[in-house]
């Protein structure tokens, strides 16, 4: 099953991207010495037109010190990964996050409570650029850890028998609740519903790699091991901790982004408005003092329900 999952991930990552996306990925890689791979992911992956949208990329680098000319940027990326930067190319706009190969492999695995990488790359993605075959193999191996990490973490909060797609819907809902997110409540379901056959194909290989034995009964997924109340309680406590830590980490990253991401506050407002449907107005003083501006903006957004 490990080979089956690796094969599925490799095939998915190798699917071709739009030439403009590939060109943008190569241009991102060219900005940073030691670039190893560029992954394209997120809602734009399903789009055929990109005008007016912001594309999402992860740049994987060999070493932070080599990737950044400014030492403080390398230090910031190492202490609070990832750094996030805006980018424009050929009339398109994007943002990209930077992680080292070591950090990407760590954050893609179940060894971390941080959901940000394994939650995103348990979803479809494309390897839009790779430096060489070794980089391709390392990136594929890291991405293949994401779905098992997601399902293993989610299992204590999931029923012992359910529809296979509900397994993924419930798991993603847990990850969305573990970060400060602007997406609507049905976002986790829409991610799965956009490509149900993909998630059906990934279910048993990912479960097997996570060490979760299951079988089908009349089309329903049934876990071989029934969880005890103590196991479920421990799982709920773990997710409560992930939520506390994840939302605090979001605030730290936002504060860091005010120094690394030009126009970061305006991007935050744009993204929240796009996903929540609520208009966000940024005042001039908030742009001048983006950290204070963000910290004063977020509580109001949470109260209004624009961010959860």
| Count of individual helical segments | 15
- Fill in the CATH topology of the largest domain: Beta Polymerase, domain 2
How much of the sequence lies in strands comes to 15-25%
- Spatial extent as radius of gyration: 19 Å
Parts with pLDDT < 50 across at least 5 consecutive residues? none
Per DSSP E runs of 2 or more residues, the count of β-strands stands at 8
- Provide mean pLDDT, rounded: 88
Biggest sheet overview: 5 strands, mixed
Q: Please state how the strands of the largest beta sheet are arranged side by side.
A: 3-4-2-1-5
Global shape? globular
Structural class estimated from helices and strands: alpha+beta
CATH class identity of the largest domain: Alpha Beta
Number of domains: 3
* Estimated helix fraction: 55-70%
What sequence of helices (H) and strands (E) makes up the elements?
HHEEHHEEHHEHHEHHHEEHHHH
From the coordinates shown, what is the CATH architecture of the largest domain?
2-Layer Sandwich
Q: Assign the CATH superfamily of the largest domain.
A: Beta Polymerase, domain 2
Distance between the termini: 36 Å
Brief overview:
Helices cover 56% and strands 15% of the residues. The protein is an alpha+beta fold.
Could you describe the 3D structure shown?
- The chain has 308 residues and is α+β, with helices and mostly antiparallel strands.
- It folds into three domains: 2-148, Beta Polymerase, domain 2; 154-238, no CATH class; 239-304, no CATH class.
- It is built from 15 helices and eight strands.
- The chain has helices at residues 2-13, 19-30, 64-67, 71-79, 101-107, 116-121, 133-144, 146-154, 164-177, 187-193, 196-209, 229-260, 264-276, 284-288, 290-304; strands at residues 35-41, 54-61, 83-89, 92-100, 125-130, 161-162, 214-217, 220-223.
- The strands form two sheets. The chain has a five-stranded mixed sheet, sandwiched between helices.
- A hairpin with a 2-residue loop joins strand 7 (214-217) and strand 8.
- Helix 12 (229-260) runs antiparallel to helix 15 (290-304).
